Amino acid sequence: MIRYPLVSSNLLSSRAIRCLTLLACVENLFPTFQSLPATGADQVAGMSLVCFSLVLFTYYTVWVIVLPFVDSDHVIHTFFLPREYSVILPGMAALILILCVGLFIGVVTWKNRKPKKVD
Amino acid sequence: MTKLLEWLLGVSVVVTAWGLLTFDLLDLKVPQVYREVVWPMPVYLLVVFGCYSIATVGYRVATFNDCEEAAQELQAQIKEAKLDLKKKGLKF
């Protein structure tokens, strides 16, 4: 196995270092370059996220805040589950989210485990 | 006072107010309708914050501009850098 010297300036030329820092800066917008609107797939994905969050917000607001003030024999109550579910469902969703994140971290850590070096 | 202390103070004030109203610890005799609205408040605020986050991310994804020239220039520079580094022995 080739051992590389610890001093990084021997390993990378200054041009390579500049290129790699440019790679790191790609996250930011370049105001000096001409820019086009985002491509179709990006716009669709973005707008669908916005619409989804609007729908979710409206439904949940009506469920939690508006419904208690509406008469209990109004027809709108048929569209909403009993009130307890307005706390249980987000709680379950949060638990599932945390489970998924933990699972992902576990899988990635497992894949990247290296056997200890034998010298 | 540090930011952390400020946030903790604010959060504890809100939580105390919510606890007092939900569990009726001060015997304020709040009408039942308002108590029905108050008790899911922490979960409601979390859901609203989640919705706001999703909306902001979605909106910024939709309005993020493409930079065609910069993308091509970057691809060329990535190729250059890879050749350079391969010569020095770095494995990809």
From TrEMBL, chain A:
Its main location: endoplasmic reticulum. The chain crosses the membrane at residues 44-67, 87-110. Pathway: Protein modification; protein glycosylation. Keywords: Endoplasmic reticulum, Membrane, Transmembrane, Transmembrane helix. InterPro entries: DPM2. Coiled coil: none annotated. GO terms for biological process: dolichol phosphate mannose biosynthetic process; GPI anchor biosynthetic process. It is a multi-pass membrane protein. Pfam families: DPM2. GO terms for cellular component: dolichol-phosphate-mannose synthase complex; endoplasmic reticulum membrane. It is found in: Endoplasmic reticulum membrane. GO terms for molecular function: enzyme regulator activity. Belongs to the DPM2 family. Regulates the biosynthesis of dolichol phosphate-mannose. Regulatory subunit of the dolichol-phosphate mannose (DPM) synthase complex; essential for the ER localization and stable expression of DPM1. Part of the glycosylphosphatidylinositol-N-acetylglucosaminyltransferase (GPI-GnT) complex that catalyzes the transfer of N-acetylglucosamine from UDP-N-acetylglucosamine to phosphatidylinositol and participates in the first step of GPI biosynthesis. May act by regulating the GPI-GNT complex. Component of the dolichol-phosphate mannose (DPM) synthase complex composed of DPM1, DPM2 and DPM3; in the complex interacts directly with DPM3. Component of the glycosylphosphatidylinositol-N-acetylglucosaminyltransferase (GPI-GnT) complex composed at least by PIGA, PIGC, PIGH, PIGP, PIGQ, PIGY and DPM2. Interacts with PIGA, PIGC and PIGQ. This is Dolichol phosphate-mannose biosynthesis regulatory protein. It comes from Scleropages formosus. The lineage of its organism: Eukaryota, Metazoa, Chordata, Craniata, Vertebrata.
Automatic annotation (TrEMBL), chain B:
One of its GO terms (biological process) is muscle structure development. This is Dolichol-phosphate mannosyltransferase subunit 3. The chain crosses the membrane at residues 7-23, 43-62. Keywords: Coiled coil, Endoplasmic reticulum, Membrane, Transmembrane, Transmembrane helix. It comes from the Eukaryota. GO terms for cellular component: dolichol-phosphate-mannose synthase complex; endoplasmic reticulum membrane. It is a multi-pass membrane protein. Component of the dolichol-phosphate mannose (DPM) synthase complex. Pathway: Protein modification; protein glycosylation. Stabilizer subunit of the dolichol-phosphate mannose (DPM) synthase complex; tethers catalytic subunit to the ER. Residues 64-91 form a coiled coil. Belongs to the DPM3 family. It is found in: Endoplasmic reticulum membrane.
